[in-house]
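Quick board copy: two proteins, each given as sequence then tokens.
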Amino acid sequence: MTDTAFYKSVAWLKCRAIVLKRDHYLCQECLRHDKLTPANIVHHIEPLDERPDLALDINNLETICPSCHNKEHPEKGGGKRKKKMKIKVHKEMGNPDIF
């Protein structure tokens, strides 16, 4: 099966929907850097061509934004880059005198 046929398959589309929902449509790479970035790309952590056995394994898939995907795959070119919305995440600490 070609990559194009795989990415149009019902199995992939269902798997992709599950991963997007699981990851709340947020870039997992950006989250690792405390940034909230909307995302709509499902990325194979272990590349599809190297590990076709993990093609539909949700533990090998994560949601990432176009910018992070371009960093993962510079060989595919960036095309037009859209400005991504970044939200800084700050952790609040409760007042210790209250507890």
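And the next:
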Amino acid sequence: MKVKEVADLVGISVRTLHHYDEIGLLSPDEVTESGYRLYSDDNLETLQQILFFRELGFPLNKIKEIMNRPTYDRQEALEMHHKMLVEKRRRLDQVIATVQRTIQHTRGEIKMSNKEKFQGFDFSHNPYEQEARERWGDQAVDESNAKAKAFGKEMQDRMNEVYMNLAAVRHLAPESEEAQTAIKAWYRLLNEFGSYSLEAFKGLGQMYVEDERFTKNIDQFGEGLSVFMRDGMAIYADKHQSKHPSE
């Protein structure tokens, strides 16, 4: 299947598949002479596994590490995914039921006790988390649960500062000098704790808009910031394809 066909089948963007290829997470079994990526059934099975891990909150670098281990067992992983997702669904069903009852309560149709108002809220660990730790390692689970903390407070503060600087110029054209200077600072910061090609940087900007989790986190610094960053990052990448990140 071609990349667009896979994207349509799965419900993700072509850019996301290109990004997975660029970071070595999922490369198509064949690339034609004209550059078309062709995905096999094995590739689709791997993609399914990746998306199961993503649904459980694992970051891409950890998914790659886990799936590249010689001891990785696909069947075993599927069974673990099933257990954890069923538990997640159970908890969500309880919260949904509480919401429905609360709506009835506010309408005066029923009377809820204080205990009933909080049924389904459970901030303890998933009962299968320990098993996941044993299978995939503490570090992978810890990063899945709180990957933002892995960067440390100092790095988080620096990231927030760049976000605020970008938010301050988001009313300008994304190709303006002020906007591109702020985008450049973001690109440099990202490359301090990762390795982003310009193409990957451009794809990341696209994900800021396509993935509502990114959009929500970024737009808290200013409405429309995610769209502004996407456009600015694309312009920066296109203009600097032959340059080094430090330039």
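Board note added afterward: The domain at 149-239 is CATH 1.10.490.50 (Globin-like).
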